[in-house]
């Protein structure tokens, strides 16, 4: 269970480590839609996808298309995280523009996981790719701020 705004909520986590946007479309979204068919639309949906795409590919057009497909299938009021911006992150910056536009278009809230990442030092784990504990704490702050924007 998750305690949010003084209330308890059931939590369904469909996250898959290493997943890309195409994986979410092919595997996680069908599971999510089956859940909605059985239990109804959840009070809160949070999606964070695209980081692995942005670091492993420069195909911005394909990533934007997949993000659009995902946003179109999410309920209004969902939260969609921006992609992490680290180093020469042109793909992430372009994708983040798309995420903001999609959130505006579909009545969703963007979660700015980069807003508190003023200094990049110590934000990455020893593998130089994944966020460190500090990096994930910044993601958590960005997600929490986005949730509080829609929880009022």
What attributes does this structure have?
three-stranded parallel beta sheet, mainly alpha, 49% helix, single chain
Walk me through what this model shows:
- With 152 residues, the protein is mostly helical.
- Helices cover 49% and strands 9% of the residues.
- It contains five helices and five strands.
- The chain has helices at 21-39, 51-56, 60-73, 90-106, 133-151, and strands at residues 2-4, 7-9, 46-47, 79-81, 109-111.
- The strands form two sheets. Strands 3-4-5 form a three-stranded parallel β-sheet. Strands 1-2 form a two-stranded antiparallel ribbon.
- The radius of gyration is 15 Å and the shape is globular.
- The mean pLDDT is 85.
Low-confidence stretches: none
Return the average pLDDT rounded to an integer: 85
Shape summary? globular
The secondary structure category is mainly alpha
Helix content: 40-55%
Number of helices: 5
Strand residue percentage: 5-15%
H/E element sequence: EEHEHHEHEH
Span from first to last CA? Answer: 20 Å
Largest sheet report = 3 strands, parallel
Give the total of beta strands: 5
Tell me the Rg in angstroms: 15 Å
Q: What is the subunit organization of this protein?
A: single chain
The neighbouring-strand order within the major sheet is 3-4-5
């Amino acid at each position: 269970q998750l305690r949010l705004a003084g209330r308890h909520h059931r939590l369904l986590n469909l996250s898959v480590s290493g997943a890309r946007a195409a994986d979410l479309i092919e595997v996680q979204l069908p599971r999510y839609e089956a859940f909605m068919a059985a239990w109804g639309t959840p009070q809160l949906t949070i999606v964070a996808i695209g980081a692995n795409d942005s670091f492993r590919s420069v195909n911005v057009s394909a990533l934007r298309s997949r993000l659009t497909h995902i946003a179109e299938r999410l309920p209004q009021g969902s939260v969609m995280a921006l992609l992490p911006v680290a180093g020469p992150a042109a793909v992430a910056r372009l994708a983040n523009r798309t995420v903001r536009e999609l959130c505006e278009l579909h009545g969703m809230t963007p979660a700015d996981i980069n807003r508190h990442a003023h200094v990049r030092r110590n934000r990455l784990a020893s593998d130089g790719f994944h966020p460190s504990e500090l990096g994930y704490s910044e993601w958590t702050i960005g997600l929490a701020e986005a949730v509080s924007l829609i929880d009022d």
